[in-house]
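User: Teach me something about this protein's shape.
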Amino acid sequence: MNQQNDKAPNQEVQVDSRFMDLMSDYGIKTLLGDPKNEELTIHFLNAVLDGYKVVNKITYADKEILGPMKSDRSAIVDILCNSDQDDQFIIELQRVKQKFFKDRGVFYVSHAIVSKAPKGKVNGKVWDYEQSPVIFIGLMDFELEDSTPETYKYFVQYWDQIQHKLFYDKTALIYLELPKFAKQLFGEDKLNELSPLGKWLYAIKNMARLSVVPKFMQEGPFKKVVEMSEVKNMTKKQRAAYQQSLRNLWDENGMKSGLIEKGRKEVEEEAAQKIKAAEEKAAKAEKDARAAEVKAKREKLEAIKKLLQTGMSSLDCAKIFNVDQAYVMDIQKSIKRKG
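Assistant: First, the predicted structure itself:
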C-alpha cells in the first residue's frame, strides 16, 4: 500500500495540483451536480446530446432512484436531473473497469422508468403507460471490450432489426470513453479542433494534470470550469471533503492496479495450464503413435508368416506388403528354424 493510502482518515492529504481532480467523486459532483454550476451542466448535456435534444433548463433530483417495492434494490447515481422538457438525465462516472457497465446503464434507466410510474390515476384517468424520456450518460475511465480507436462515444437506442429504423426514442444509453482524451495525445492545435464534447472530456480527464490552461479553457463555459476547479479557492470544509474524495479515488486506483495484476497472473496461470495440457496431449499422441506403429509391424509380421506358410514366395510377399525381400527372407528363415 502506498503512503497516500496509509493516511489516517482525519489526517490531511497533501494536494499538489493546482486544479481539482474532476475524476474524483467530489470533483464530478461539484462540476455537474451543484446547482451553482447549472449552466455548466446544461452546456455539458447539450455537448453530449449533439442535437438529439436541446436542454435549456434543469432541476436536480434526489440521486437515489427507489424501486417500486421497499424490498427492491435502489439505484444511487452520481447526478440525476430533469430538463424543462421533462427529460430525465442520469450521469454516472465509473473509474474502475466494470465488466457489466453496459448492464448497469440499462438497470439505472429501467429503475428510473419504474420509479416514475404513477401509483394511482393521472388526472382522474387510469395511467396508460406513457413514458417521459430517460437518458443515461456513462463517463468511463476505461474502454469497452469492443472499442475501436476512432470511437469514444456510443449512443444506444431501441432499433428495429427487420425494418432497419429506430423503434423507440424515449430512452438512450450514452457511453463515453475518457482514456482516449489523455493529455499526452493532444497538442494545443489539436485541442482547439476538438468538438464541444471532446473539450469537455479532455477537461474532465486532465484538469488535475494541467499546469498551463489551454486556450479553449480561457473562454466560454470552460473559463468557469477553471475557476471552480482552483484548489486555492476552496473553503476549509470543501477542502476536507475533496481530500476524502481523493482518498477514495486512490483506493479505487489501488484496487484497479490490483485487479490488473490479478488479471495478469490469472492470464499467465491459464496460459501455463494450457501449455502443460498441450504438452501432455502431444506426449500422449506420440506414445499412442509409437504403440500403433509397433502393433502395425507385429500384425504385418504375422500376416507375412501366414502367407509364407501357405507356400507363397518371399518375392510375392515383399511386393504385397511393400517391404524389402531380404526382410521377408529373414522371416522365412526364422520360421524354418522354429519348424
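Now, about its shape. Residues 278 and 284 are 10 Å apart (CA to CA). The beta strands are 58-60, 64-65, 75-76, 79-83, 88-94, 134-140, 153-160, 165-177. If you'd like, I can walk through any region in more detail.
User: That's plenty for now, thanks!
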